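Encode chain A's predicted structure.
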Amino acid sequence: MMTERGSIEIREEEEGVIAANRTVKGKGNLEEKVLFNIEAKLISEAPSLTHTCIFRIPDRIKKVNETEFVSRLVSIGPLHHCKKSLQAMETIKYWYLHNLLQKASCRTNLKHMVEIVTSMEEYCRDCYDENLDLSSEAFVEMMVVDGCFIIEFYRGMAGEFFTMENMLLHAIEGPDFPRSVAASDLLLLENQLPWGVVECLFELTKEPNQERSCNSLTELCGRGWRDPVETVVCGRPLGIVEEKSRSRHLLDTWRLFLSGPDHRCEVYSWFSLPSSATELVQIGVKFKRRRSDDNILTVTFVNGVMEISPIFGKPFCLLRNLVTMEECDSTGPH
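Encoded structure for chain A:
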């Protein structure tokens, strides 16, 4: 005959077994979920870095002078797409798109643009050096809207239509709105769209048989905004880029403008310079200014004298973004 104490001990033992079984079952469920998540993310082929060309600025570089890498007015692309301080320009972008579609000379429609850009989504995503937390719908919409904004902004700057001042300057409160702010924002490394999608939208919306119209996106960039680069190249003609010199995004196009088709860079693995001009002076190197019409990238060192082309104006934001682009992209054509 089982005593009350014996019954209690049996019940406690049974409850312990049940709890243990629950623990094992819980661990099993957890392991199955983790296993499922990992297997769902496995890929059979190595990730392609062929198209990767748009990067976030590394913290070690940004902390030196963050203002030279951060948009002040307009966000382009996914890296700062939801930044609250830049949301005012989103309305302006859709206004630009509306005006573009309303042009009598526009040979396409919004549906066709969306279809074309949707077919390019994978290529566009591969251009960014991180996984983008955007749905396909949001990503394609952003590419279409931002791409058309870039094109129409440059068309206005290039004088292809005469309503630029009304469209942009009066769209935002205050008469002193500087176009140069928007133009500078478009040349930030974190503010880039893949060249292929912008070029495709340009071709779809190109105005044929118009005297002031540019024949290519590269020509439009050269005519559209000269100030940031003219201060750098000291009068060197813009828009001279060989067809084979394939750009990867807008900032990369300015690299091509600066370097030109005849630029060559010779690198010697056995030779390295000190890290600063001060150290060069200390070891006896003399600096000399080259004539102002030289390419900014031309630097010579002969008989202890280093000749460097002068830099006028304040193009340091552009130059820092170009240098950072080269540092981030070791596989690029530079």
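Residues 71 and 145 are 18 Å apart (CA to CA).
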